[in-house]
Design goal:
The chain is of the alpha/beta class. It is built from 7 helices and 9 strands; from the N terminus they run ββαβααβαβαβαβββα. It starts with a strand and ends in a 9-residue tail after the last helix.
Length: about 190
């Protein structure tokens, strides 16, 4: 498990191929194991390779807004959902805007990532903040990517029948409405 700079904040990252590392990420962050971790990918092909059906609505968002600060939550295989702590069969995916990070994801495969901070605390925006926050704890290293702006990603959930915003961040509701029409919670929540 390492900390790395995303396009928004610093994140703690663990390979999905290492369930022990994903569990360690929850422990290091002191995050409840029922609060799901998002997954960073280099593109839609990595998502589909995990057995996820990337719907036309998801493709509309990813084509228009990725790479970038948008996490798209979609139905996913139960084993994958359990691995990242989802209590439902859905997982959030994001293709980051940082080119270096996307190149790393191409080499490592998808990574479970959460902001570098203890659960409930503000996210770290510099490598030094990460080092201080996790000093003496089980973190293999910090990949310094400079200062990050601290704007979190917008998180949108898609179902067969509807969509809704779980967290408004760098992308506004208006951007999503322009692409998907009015928010519709009939499919979930």
């Amino acid at each position: 498990m390492v900390a790395l700079a995303t396009d928004t904040v610093y994140g703690l990252a663990a390979s999905l191929a290492r369930p022990d590392a994903v569990a360690a990420l929850f422990a290091l962050k002191r995050r409840p194991t029922t609060v799901a971790l998002p997954v960073l990918v280099d593109g839609v092909a990595q998502i589909e390779a995990m057995g996820v059906n990337w719907s036309a609505r998801a493709a509309r968002l990813s084509d228009a807004l990725w790479p970038g600060a948008l996490t798209i939550v979609v139905p996913a295989p139960a084993a994958l959902a359990r691995l990242v702590g989802s209590v439902r069969t859905s997982v959030g995916f994001r293709c980051p805007g940082d080119q270096d990070l996307r190149e790393l994801l191409t080499r490592t495969g998808p990574l479970a990532v959460s902001s570098a901070n203890e659960h409930g605390e503000p996210p770290c925006t510099t490598a030094e903040q990460v080092r201080q926050a996790f000093a003496g704890r089980a973190l293999a290293g910090v990949l310094d990517g400079g200062v990050r702006d601290g704007l979190v990603s917008t998180v949108v959930e898609l179902s067969e029948d509807g969509w809704w915003i779980l967290r408004e961040g760098a992308l506004t509701r208006d951007v999503l409405v322009d692409l998907l029409g009015q928010e519709d919670r009939s499919g979930g929540q």
